[in-house]
Amino acid sequence: MASQPEFLLASLAFIILIMMPITMILVHQSHLVYQIRAGESEEKNIRQLIYGLLHHPGDPPNWGTSTNPPSAIGFASQRDYNSLDPEKVQRLCVRNLNYLDYQTFSQALELKSIRIRMRFLPPFNVSIVPTGGNITIKTTTWNGEPLPYVDILIVEVDINNRSSLPSIIRTWKNTTDENGETPPISINRTVTDIIIVLAKYKDGLFAPAYYIPIITVTQTVNVTFRYYIDPITQEVDYGHLIVDYQVSPGTGIDYVNVTTILIDHTFQRTDAQYFSSMSSSTSGSMTVNILSKGITFIIVYAYRKISPFYNIIIRAVDVFTWPPFVGYFSEDPPFGADLSSSDVIFQELMLTNGIPCLAVVECEY
Questions:
Q1: Which of 119, 165, 237, 295 has most Cβ atoms within 10 angstroms of its Cβ?
Q2: DSSP characters for 275-286?
């Protein structure tokens, strides 16, 4: 017969053998619970970070107009509630002369293992589809579903003419059908250089588009827009932008023109205003009018003037909008890191200069 100590040892060994699998299961479950709670905590912190990005102005509060990186990053407007500051948003556009690169952005936020991608989009998508000598305008939601019965304003612009000043060839309206498409629209390719489109859904949701059908350019344009308000001379419907432009080095340039196409939020008025740099310099500044409420298309182009017939050769042309968008036009891709997956996706409809804008922030951690 076994002694009492031997019996106790044997009993203890039996209990350990029985309990080990259960303990392993409990430990594993505890680890999973910890991981889940840690993940929930991480997501909560990320959502707080995103909220701060969209609803706080950063430091300094006017960092959008500076050439220096901010010490704290936030895209909120100082002037308007629940609004984004367009000067800060435009610093995420790669065509901006004061582009804020992602490494500086990440260091300022101390992101470490968190990766962020940001887009500032119109509330819906509008595209111009060329087919032969025609174009079709398509409107969709961001899920890719057709968006029917959207009002469309189309402006054909000629910039390559003998006067060296752009001219609006034609302006007309249309509406997308139940499939979110307009009928094919004929354009005059011999004189139309740029097609401007503004789509309006219901009373206050806008989406811009543009198409350059023919011009081949050899140089690129980068700009910075600085918005300001003059309380003495400010007209009710207008604001002002200082456009700092820079054309890449290349073939000789005689002039740089900046043209603004102003389309108000009612579609009732379309103005074209022309401003020209009277020097051969490939960089400079000029002041232009913009709409206080509506979409302004800003066309910047550089050209060489050929005497004696005053024909011109376009060296560079680009189209910008005010307010700006990020991740919408191909020239200004989404800002941030390439993500293999999106652990957190945050979307919020906000205002930018009085125009609804969809802020989309994706995070991977």
A1: 295
A2: EEE-SS-SEEEE
